[in-house]
């Protein structure tokens, strides 16, 4: 029973990370109609920046804020300088660009920081909180950070004029231009926010996975499964899907297939959702008359 409780709670912690990455994928998909396959590598590269800042003597939370700011500028710069000039290129061309970005960030990270596995510090205490053994301080702290990020995003998009303008630009760019919204800059801001969210996820998962240029490949796969389960165009669905995938991964890996094959859970979820319910739990169902 203790194992079941621990795996369930730990699943919520990792599910929060998957939810953050899935939310970043959904934000890019809403704005462009494409899945950013380089999202994980951008998060990994930002996490290396945090590692470098911490080892330079900067306190953890100051490095955390600086890394989020760096990731925001990185995402906005990629969209404005690289993707915006491409215009409305075919989907396969955009997929090629995303894969190219994945390879570039992975190679540059290996070139600058080497491919040696590095430890990444956790800002939370080593001892479990409240004298219990079901959840570690890092797992509980990860849940808290994830919830704080999600709450800030909700307030930003719901109660600020800039957030409403970004939502409008993503949902209907033509009408947004007619009312004076600078759609190009709104898309750049969306990419910046998605990159910043990914950086938070990278810094939360690095103490568990350790830091190396390939650490986010599995996380991105789980995040894609979470986005598809919840609905690739639904931010709330991404959060719910992330929690579902996190708990399911832990329970199935512990009781059925073992930890070595846990990645197959994400693959099965992706295939199953695409076959049975492509719109996911909360995604928009498109009906076409023929």
TrEMBL record:
InterPro entries: ABC_transp_permease (IPR001851), BCAA_transport_permease (IPR052157)
Assigned keywords, A-Z: Amino-acid transport, Cell membrane, Membrane, Transmembrane, Transmembrane helix, Transport
Compartments where found: Cell membrane
Residue ranges of the TM segments: 9-29, 49-77, 89-113, 143-164, 185-209, 263-284
One GO BP: amino acid transport
Keyword Cell membrane: yes
Topology class, membrane: Multi-pass membrane protein
Cellular component GO terms, alphabetical: plasma membrane
Domain of life: Bacteria
GO molecular function, one term: transmembrane transporter activity
Main location: membrane
Cleaved signal peptide residues: none
Family note: Belongs to the binding-protein-dependent transport system permease family. LivHM subfamily.
Record-given protein name: Branched-chain amino acid ABC transporter permease
Organism: Rhodoferax koreensis
């Amino acid at each position: 029973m203790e194992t079941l409780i621990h795996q369930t709670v730990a699943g919520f912690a990792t599910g929060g990370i998957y939810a953050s990455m899935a939310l970043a994928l959904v934000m890019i998909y809403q704005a462009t109609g494409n899945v950013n396959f380089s999202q994980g590598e951008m998060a990994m590269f930002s996490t290396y920046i945090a590692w470098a800042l911490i080892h330079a003597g900067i306190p953890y939370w100051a490095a955390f804020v600086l890394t989020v700011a760096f990731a925001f500028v990185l995402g906005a710069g990629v969209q404005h300088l690289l993707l915006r000039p491409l215009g409305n290129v075919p989907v396969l061309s955009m997929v090629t660009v995303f894969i190219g970005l994945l390879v570039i960030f992975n190679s540059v990270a290996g070139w600058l920081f080497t491919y040696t596995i590095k430890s990444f510090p956790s800002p939370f205490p080593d001892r479990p909180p409240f004298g219990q053994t079901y959840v570690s301080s890092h797992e509980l702290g990860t849940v808290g950070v994830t919830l704080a990020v999600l709450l800030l995003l909700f307030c930003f998009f719901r109660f600020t004029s800039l957030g409403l303008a970004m939502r409008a630009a993503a949902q209907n760019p033509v009408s947004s231009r007619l009312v004076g919204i600078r759609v190009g800059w709104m898309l750049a801001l969306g990419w910046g926010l998605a990159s910043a969210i990914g950086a938070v996820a990278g810094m939360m998962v690095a103490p568990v996975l350790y830091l190396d240029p390939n650490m986010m490949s599995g996380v991105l796969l789980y995040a894609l499964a979470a986005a598809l389960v919840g609905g690739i165009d639904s931010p709330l669905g991404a959060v719910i899907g992330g929690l579902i995938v996190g708990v399911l991964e832990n329970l199935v890996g512990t009781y059925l297939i073992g930890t070595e094959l846990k990645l197959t859970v994400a693959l099965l979820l992706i295939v199953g959702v695409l076959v049975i319910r492509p719109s996911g739990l909360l995604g928009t169902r498109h009906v076409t008359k023929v």
